[in-house]
Amino acid sequence: MEKRYYQKEIETMPVEEIKKLQSEKLVKQVKHVYENVEYYRNLMDKKGVKPEDIHGIEDLHKLPFLTKADLRDAYPYGLLAKPLKDCVRIQSTSGTTGRRVVAFYTQHDVDLWEECCARAIVAAGGTNEDVCQVAYGYGLFTGGPGLNGGSHRVGCLTLPMSSGNTERQIQFMTDLSATILCCTPSYAAYIGETLKEKGYKPEDIPLKAGIFGAEPWTEEMRRNIEETLGIKAYDIYGLTETSGPGVSFECEEQTGMHINEDHFLAEIIDPDTGEVLPEGEKGELVFTSLDKEAFPLLRYRTRDICVLSRKKCSCGRTLIKMAKPMGRTDDMLIIRGVNVFPSQIETVLLSEGYQPNYQIVVDRVNNTDTFDVNVEMAPEQFTDKVSEILAMEKSLANAMKIMLGINPSVHLVAPKAIARSEGKAVRVIDKRKLV
Amino acid sequence: MAIKQLTVFVENKQGALVAVTDTLAKHNVNMRALSIAETQDFGMLRLIVDDETVAEKTLSEEGYLIKVTEVVGVKISDQPGKLTEALAVLDKAGINMEYLYAFMARTEKHAYVVLRVENNAVAENALQEAGFKLVTQADIDKL
To answer: Considering the domain boundaries, does residue A2 fall inside one?
Structure first.
């Protein structure tokens, strides 16, 4: 098969040249951030680093880290590096003010993001003859807009479906012969199961490839989706803080995701000491945005545990590869593609008049995440009417839905009903065994 | 006039119900009537007992969620159509009912029906005006 790339020159650039390009971009970017972002300038000053100290990527380690806590402190405009008149878009994650990430984009930033997604689509075999069904959520979530833009750039006929309404997804997929499906892996699996129930065999389904991301999934799940839909399933990675999906993407070798290194400089650090680890060692993934204008995060700690590898890839791409994230250094859960922090549940409980005695139980049944929250009732909240208890559960679930963007099943339980280990309640039970 | 009912929250798992009745037995509390409402996740055990003070205290100490509610008890003759008459009275008076359950009195030719309504006094008046006799705490004690 002929090897195809969206931007061949970049994607197959010799490593030394990529590093040179990164160095040039980094020097410029640090200067841009130092001059325009007071928040980061203060961090650099505190560390005694000046833009003049950064001569290339070998000096990256001198720069201070940014964390989720910095995003909270600087919310909403504190990390903005361009005047608002130059910005054309925001994207955001779910959560309270503190947890919510609002990322800003200039047109240049949207362009580079969409190009990254286009590279992913071409790596999955996409051309302008394809029909690309985008079943990621549209709106503030980056999944839909990112792949939608990438699909346009490749020249695919784009079906902007957004997520949900599976009947309609299937109707468009079969009537318009969609050949590429973009969504979360669990939704892909669900669509696959639904097609199977309707009597579709893999060979009856027009799809040839899928680009799936925004949540952790296993190799087993990949095989399962590939068999049911009769496709090749490709992984894609990204986060709102850096732009969205397309920070890295899989090629036909399916052995890790190529990072779009001309835009995103990756490091692996020891999460405890912050020390940079050599290639091949497991640690926390850190990204530096090399040429984003509006929201250029330098050394942003993703909290994802990961490994990088420069091993030669049979696809011809020279871009460094990252493994599937192997876990988190914080307590964030990804449920149905949505980031959920236990502290968000706690915030809802307190604001709704409950004690923060709860337990989150996550499982995956028929390839779909289940999300249950058990909450202990205080004696004075108890009533003899079943209807009132059910109404309380429903109202709590609604409040959590507003906070998180996904709907949990809330179960009120008796005080002390939630198991405690050494006096401390176990807040999260994740039965999905994703790693 | 109203009689006292105890509601206990029981988790929907094996052994949960027997743990409650066992606690009551150990403290010599005798049950007069019992009803269970269940959902997928939990059950509501509703009890009329001979000593609700002891029952409430011991169960609370064991960590159970307990609610003591005043409910209306009405005596219904043990013959077809009598419950319908009583319900019609309440319906006519515009009284909403949350739930009800019945139990037989050993000594009288009556069924005792426990009613959970929004306003006990209004329900009691309506029933008495229609000629129904109410169950008193003394009746319960006699059981």
So the answer is: no
Neighbours of A119 (CB within 10 A): 27
The DSSP call for residue B5 is: E
Do A214 and A136 contact (CB within 8 A), yes or no?
A: yes
Print the domain residue range for A39.
8-330
Task: Give how far B65 is from chain A: nearest CA, Å.
Answer: 6
Contact B67 A389 (CB under 8 A): no
Q: Which residues of A touch B116 (CB under 8 A)?
A: 384-385
Whether residue A263 is found in the same domain as residue A395: no
pTM of the model: 0.77
How do the domains of chain B map onto residue ranges?
A: 3-69, 70-142
Closest CA to A143 of A185, A179, A108: A185
Report the pLDDT value the prediction gives residue A300, as an integer from 0 to 100.
Answer: 98
CATH superfamily assigned to domain B70-142: ACT domain (3.30.70.260)
For B121: left if phi > 0, alpha if psi spans -120 to 50, otherwise beta; the answer is: alpha
The answer to whether A318 and A18 are in contact (CB under 8 A) is yes
8 Å CB contact between B76 and B142: no
Concatenated DSSP letters of B15-29: THHHHHHHHHHHTTP
How many domains would you assign to chain A?
Answer: 2
Q: Which residues contact A217 (CB under 8 A, 6 or more apart)?
A: A185, A186, A235, A434
Return the DSSP state at B81.
Answer: T
Tokens of A431: 């039965």
Average pLDDT, chain A: 93
pLDDT at residue A93 in the model? 85
Alpha-carbon distance B90 to nearest alpha carbon in chain A (angstroms): 19
| A121: pLDDT strictly greater than 90 | yes
For an interface test with A, give the residue of B42, B61, B72, B120 to mutate (most A CBs within 10 A).
Answer: B42
pLDDT tens track for B96-139: 899 999 988 776 678 899 999 988 999 999 999 999 999 988 88
- Whether A301 shows a pLDDT value over 90: the answer reads yes
Task: Chain B: give the shortest CA distance to residue A373, in Å.
Answer: 12
- Comparing C-alpha atoms, which of A338, A353, A332, A356 is closest to residue A402? A338
A389 contact residues in B (CB cutoff 8 A): 39, 42, 44
* Averaged pLDDT for residues A287-302: 98
Residue A433 CB contacts under 8 Å (≥ 6 apart), including other chains: A218
Q: Which residues of B touch A (CB under 8 A)?
A: 5, 7, 9, 11, 37, 39, 41-42, 44, 46, 60, 63-67, 69, 98-99, 116
* Chain A residues near residue B70 by CB distance under 8 angstroms: none
- Same-domain check for residues A273 and A398: no
Task: Select from A385, A389, A414 the Cβ nearest to the Cβ of B98.
Answer: A385
* A182: its two tokens: 């973009």
| CATH code of the domain covering residue A89 | 3.40.50.12780
